[in-house]
Amino acid sequence: MPLKLHEALDINLDEINREIENLVLKDRDVAARSPLSQGILELVRSGGKRLRPLLVVVGSRFGPKPAGRRTLQLAAAAEFIHVASLIHDDIIDGAELRRGEPALHMRTGIAPAVHIGNYMSARVIELLARYADNEQRYVHDLSAVATAQLCLGEYQQMEHAFDYNLTLEQYLEKSINKTAMLMATCLRVGALSSGCSNETADELYAFGEALGISFQIQDDLLDFTQSSDALGKPAGSDLRHGQVTLPVLFALEDPALAPQIRRIGPHSSESELAGVLEGIGQSSALRRTEAVSQSYLDRAAAIAERLKSHPAQSDLVTLLRYFAVRDR
Ligand code: FPP
Ligand code: MG
């Protein structure tokens, strides 16, 4: 069995999980056994790789100070932001499943799920504002990403649903806002929490951004390559929902496929979709997408190379290896 990412990085997930749960358990305004508290605890205990908290901890290993409580609190905040965004995302996408289990809104109804997601992101902003005394202004970066960029990325995605004239630049911008910026910020904020220099923190940000773009591209690829069982949600969902991802952009360059793809709209039949999914699967689009994902990993590897003088650089190499062999 290959090591899990947190094992390969030698990070204690129990400590991080405790801080994540503390975000709601230590909120004196939320009653311990209230549906709000129970809903959040159930959700955060339902799994997840804790990738963003791990990035905060890895970032903290680049500074002179050992990772303390503040680093763990920032790691927990990053996961809360991520989980809150997924609650909203599943409502927006009409997704019934998350990680193979019913999505929160399927269990609670839409209005309670919206409020839970709002509470979680607001709670993070509340805490980050408290941490942000004069020396720790950098924590504002996390709340800025939480409030603005994720929402903007999601808005851009919605705005361009079924837009087959989407450009590569627009696709990348949306992917940065939706995914890469939070990952990059996690590394940077973690680094600054341990007294790392701004220069190194900025390099880590650039590394995280490249890694995040590669991650989003791979995620978009999985929708075409994985079974519904492996995905924990119906395969081909992105295309069905009008998301013009990188494989679709490449397939649109194929004169035989383009007209079929352009016909896909909100009311297309399952058989029409299946035909297009098969066409994209047999085209060169998936291989080309994989190559772009790899080029961002190469970009991240070049940045990691520049950070070689830091002992923690080996963690960046571990991240790169993990992202290269991520479940396809
Ligand atoms: C997953 O996308 C979703 C995101 C990475 C971000 C979604 C952001 C929002 C809904 C904005 C609201 C945010 C807050 C903090 C209130 P996906 O649908 O491509 O991935 P999936 O396959 O995991 O659903
Ligand atoms: Mg989704």
UniProtKB/TrEMBL annotation:
SUPFAM superfamilies: Terpenoid synthases
Gene Ontology MF annotations: metal ion binding; prenyltransferase activity
Cofactor section: Mg(2+)
Residues forming coiled coils: none
Swiss-Prot/TrEMBL keywords: Magnesium, Metal-binding, Transferase
Pfam families to which the protein is assigned, alphabetical: polyprenyl_synt (PF00348)
GO BP annotation list: isoprenoid biosynthetic process
Family according to the record: Belongs to the FPP/GGPP synthase family.
Full protein name: Polyprenyl synthetase family protein
Lineage: Bacteria, Bacillati, Bacillota, Bacilli, Bacillales
